[in-house]
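Dear colleagues,

I hope this message finds you well. In preparation for our joint manuscript, I am sending the Efflux transporter periplasmic adaptor subunit (Janthinobacterium svalbardensis) sequence together with its predicted structure, so that both groups work from identical material. I would be grateful if you could confirm receipt.
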Amino acid sequence: MNSNFNLKAIALVIAGVALASGGYWVGSRGNSDAGRMAPPGDTGLDSKTGKKVLYWHDPMVPATKFDKPGKSPFMDMQLVPVYADGGGEEVGVKISSTLQQNLGIRFANVRRVDSRDSLELVGTTQFDESIAEVVQSRVTGYIDHLYARSPMQRVKRGEPIALLFVPDWIAPQEEYLALRQSGNETLAGAARQRMRTMSIPDALVAQAERTGKAQSHFTLVSPVSGIVSELGVREGAMVSPGITVAKIAGTNKVWLLAEVPEALANRARAGMSVTAISSSDPLRKYTGKVREIIPGVSTATRTVQARLELDNKDGSLLPGQLMRIQLEAATSVSRLVVPSEAVITSGKRSVVLVADASNNMRPVIVTLGRESSGDTEVTSGLIEGQKVVASGQFLIDSEANLKGILPKFSNVDEMKPAQAAPMESGPVLHGVARIEKVSNDALTLSHQPIPELQWGAMTMDFKKPRPDSFAGVKQGDNVEFSFRDGKDGYTLENVKMTGGGKK
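The corresponding structure tokens are as follows:
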């Protein structure tokens, strides 16, 4: 009896020790886990890197922040820590020099340049009406012969245009010749003066004197070299004083009518220098100046016409030619400029990424002016000498999105941390994966690492652009795929079987 009691007592003691040891181990383990899961606070350091941890997040959903590590509720992956940068404040994006080279990031300086106001326009040529000449008859007569047969015919100065028969000139000439032969100089002089009042040319009278016969025909000639822009009569037609027989347009200068958008009308001024290039000869440049700005806005095109004057001594320009035009002001103005590619425009605002001495980048809102020759004027937001990112901005924007500091880009007005928003449309990225599931809205892919986004291998959903997209793929297929980071998440662009065609 005593022996059985002793055995039971010993067993109870051993069980108690075991329970106590187990409880101590569980408690120690629990305290260790609790310490590991505790928020880092101001003194939380990553045991692997020794860096201060601000929070944890899922790189696929960077807007949601967690105060402790663990598995992502959105993806089949572990949460990623986000470390403090420069005293624990999120002041921008820090990218290593190696990654800068891989991403092709280039920098440029904000500089001041002296530039002239300029406009690039399109216009068409037309005759210069200010140098046009008309060929008219001063007497009543008939067109016996036309030398200029049709409009747009080229003529030279002094070339005949029309042969005019004037019957009213015959009698005065015969009277003058008879008085001259009679030797009565007084009456002959009076007859000569009467012929001048009748617009009988002196050259015609001299010819009558030489031949002794009255001249009934008179030739109308071109006063200038140019093109017959108008021909108002035909052979056999009767003409009277003031009737225009032909209109000759000079070609030494031409007008160029340029359409200036209404919003830019105040930038075009008379006297600006003009450089024009014809589409028929891109290597040839024509120079001139702005003659005048025609008052009035076209209700159809909402443009103002500028009348330009171009030099055309060689006659190579013809009416109706389409030309590209550049207007420049006579004086230059000092402006602050950055490369145009350095500006990120969202529609509501324009942003430039400014880098400090350690290449820590932050977004700055800028006010833009005019763009010319690859540079854009900055009227506010920057100072001369600052370093800005000239290329790779969208890759940096993507990097900022993944690190959870995208609020700096989307809420740059406040320049303080805020809820991040996904990019509207990122670059096309590529990967290799195995299809785990196919649904109407998405494909579940187990993909290999994607270095551009610093993703490891993981399983996640990618949205389809349409429910009927990629109908040929099925669960278990090995595929190559491309996708974009859009407003609604990661959306597939293309999926094709490995070694096969597009599905």
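For the figure legend, we might mention the following. The CA atoms of residues 39 and 67 lie 5 Å apart. Residues 429-497 form a domain with the OB fold (Dihydrolipoamide Acetyltransferase, E2P) fold (CATH 2.40.50.320).

With kind regards,
E.M.
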